[in-house]
Amino acid sequence: xxxxxxxxxxxxxxxxxxxxxxxxxxxxxxxxxxxxxxxxxxxxxxxxxxxxxxxxxxxxxxxxxxxxxxxxxxxxxxxxxxxxxxxxxxxxxxxxxxxxxxxxxxxxxxxxxxxxxxxxxxxxxxxxxxxxxxxxxxxxxxxxxxxxxxxxxxxxxxxxxxxxxxxxxxxxxxxxxxxxxxxxxxxxxxxxxxxxxxxxxxxxxxxxxxxxxxxxxxxxxxxxxxxxxxxxxxxxxxxxxxxxxxxxxxxxxxxxxxxxxxxxxxxxxxxxxxxxxxxxxxxxxxxxxxxxxxxxxx
Length: 298
Ligand SMILES: C[S@@+](CC[C@H](N)C(=O)[O-])C[C@H]1O[C@@H](n2cnc3c(N)ncnc32)[C@H](O)[C@@H]1O
Known about the structure:
Elements: H1 16-20, E1 30-32, H2 39-44, E2 49-52, H3 56-66, H4 70-82, H5 86-100, H6 108-124, H7 153-163, E3 166-169, H8 176-179, E4 185-188, H9 210-225, E5 229-235, H10 236-242, H11 246-253, E6 258-268, E7 274-284
Parallel strand pairs: 1-2, 1-4, 2-3, 4-5
Antiparallel strand pairs: 5-7, 6-7
Helix pairs in contact: 3-6, 3-7, 4-6, 5-6
């Protein structure tokens, strides 16, 4: 079982057992259109399917890690690790941003360099965050690791192995509407903030807002209708939003789609009335008897 090699906001390592309990035992190909750190993918090692993220630097990293020459990238990252200092971190950040401006015309060795820099910056920056300014420059400051542990060759080898046979893409998630076929599994993990309130703007970012959430829901339902197995992580707030869609409500009422609440928090709503809302949910098309693992075993 491989592990994620990058720290990523919204990473799903903590809830892997719950995710496993929401998917079936057998599916043809596996697809993950909002890949990030890919916690579920590395856990499952599906061997067939596609992974995608809109972030080009991230997908360049995975495509170099997948390639035959991935060890060149590891060697470069080791060198960066050996030279780590505050001054060096900011030099690397500048170099990483300089390469970004050459996207589309990068030589292979520059792509390897960019991948090594991403690994180094990811392990040394503040909280392993990935954030860009308005001009698309990575702008996270250095973290407080005096002796960061950056390169784990065994872990990278396992991730390299897990990536074999997988299509690596850098598109908008909507590609999945054409890519997935009946009996495939698609796991969606869009950007969201945990929470269950009704002030939706709080939970969805400018880059993935309320309209994007609704559009995504309908794509998920379309795929389900075509016989594709679907699972999605989201906030409780998104589920509240979805409930306003008749099509969604019908699926839930007909027990053709299931909501698994993850974290429940008791709160008082504006009318002073108690309600229990889950901060985070998993939506799945897989009925309990077909799931890979039973939730009741946790
Ligand atoms: C919550 S993170 C995924 C975390 C991942 N499951 C993990 O375990 O690390 C969401 C990802 O979606 C990507 N993303 C945002 N908008 C997107 C879009 N329109 N199409 C594809 N990917 C997108 C972001 O770059 C981010 O990496």
